[in-house]
Design a protein that fits this description.
Layout (H helix, E strand, L loop, with lengths): L1 E6 L13 E5 L4 E4 L5 H7 L9 E3 L5 H4 L2 H10 L6 E5 L3 H11 L1 H11 L9 E5 L3 E6 L2 E7 L9 E7 L2 E5 L7 H6 L5 E7 L13 H9 L4 H10 L5 E7 L5 H12 L4 E2 L5 E3 L1
Parallel strand pairs: 3-4, 4-5, 5-6, 10-11, 11-12, 12-13
Antiparallel strand pairs: 1-2, 1-14, 2-3, 7-8, 8-9, 9-10
Helix pairs in contact: 8-9
The chain binds zinc ion (ZN) (2 copies).
Length: 275
């Protein structure tokens, strides 16, 4: 199994860290997790056509994780996709997909009839919404999904992927929570989000103490994530979803090593990790 970090950023714009999204590839399957801003450009850089993606999983429906959804769908059609899309996500995903598709319905209709391509299957979208905990299988990839704690977001998920006795867990956006530590147990790789303490400063009236506190409190901080990985007995900790996107890498490694016992990997866009 291979994990490719497509975007390791957050809502803030950074040309070095695109919006959150990841690709999990096996011998047979290609699955995307989230589709943050820039996902199709990152796939293109890797020479992977969105025509060949088997499924898209949403961790949750915060815009930084979902904003390029239509771009992914329409570009797959431009890339001659000839099969429907399989989308999995939290409750609300059906409504979200319908609204986005509706917004572009007229433009799409015109385009389909004018360009007369062989297939419009890319626009057939099959959505499955998650229960609180469950599993699914996409070709040779086994996936477990479980709720994490990103309140006030009601429905947010983490995923565990297994293939050939190897395990990858993706935290999604979450504050430290029991479910994540339970389902991430003994992962070969734990891909975890992080909020880096001390790197974002207050800006008078625009970014207040309360804003900072609230953002920080529904994420996992740099002084928590090493402990989470340690409790989960993860073999390797890879960090992503950096808030903020620019920070002192050595400091972050040092802080986390203290708790985890090993150096974490600071994720970068287009980094590949064999599992
Ligand atoms: Zn996010
Ligand atoms: Zn979020």
């Amino acid at each position: 199994m291979e994990l490719t970090l497509l975007g390791t950023g957050c809502p803030s714009v950074d040309h070095k860290r695109f919006g959150p999204s990841n690709l999990i590839s096996t011998d047979k399957a290609k699955v995307l997790v989230d589709c943050g801003s820039g996902i199709t450009q990152r796939l293109h850089k890797l020479n992977i056509s969105s025509a060949n993606i088997d499924a898209l999983l949403f961790t949750h429906l915060h815009s930084d994780h979902a904003v390029d959804f239509y771009q992914l769908i329409i570009s797959s059609w431009h890339s001659y996709r000839i099969k429907p899309w399989k989308i999995y996500g939290p409750r609300g995903t059906k409504k979200f997909v319908k609204k986005i598709m509706d917004a572009w319905a007229e433009e799409r209709k015109l385009r389909i009839s004018y360009e007369s391509r062989a297939s419009a299957k890319a626009f057939e979208i099959q959505v499955t919404e998650f229960k609180s905990i469950g599993s699914l299988k996409i070709k040779d990839l086994n996936i477990k999904y479980f709720e994490v704690d990103h309140k006030p977001v009601k429905y947010a998920y983490g995923f565990s992927f297994t293939n050939k006795n190897k395990k990858l867990t993706i935290s999604g956006d979450t504050r430290p929570c029991e479910n994540l530590m339970k389902y991430a147990q003994r992962s070969d790789v734990l891909l975890h989000e992080v909020f880096i303490e001390g790197e974002i400063l207050q800006i008078n009236k625009m970014r207040t103490k309360k804003t900072l506190h609230n953002v920080q409190s529904y994420h996992t901080t740099s002084t928590q994530v090493g402990k989470v990985a340690f409790i989960a007995r993860a073999k390797k900790l890879v960090l992503t979803h950096f808030v903020p996107t620019r920070f002192n890498k050595n400091n972050l490694k040092k802080v986390i090593k203290k708790d985890f016992g090993k150096n974490p990997v600071i994720g970068e866009d287009l980094m590949k990790i064999k599992i």
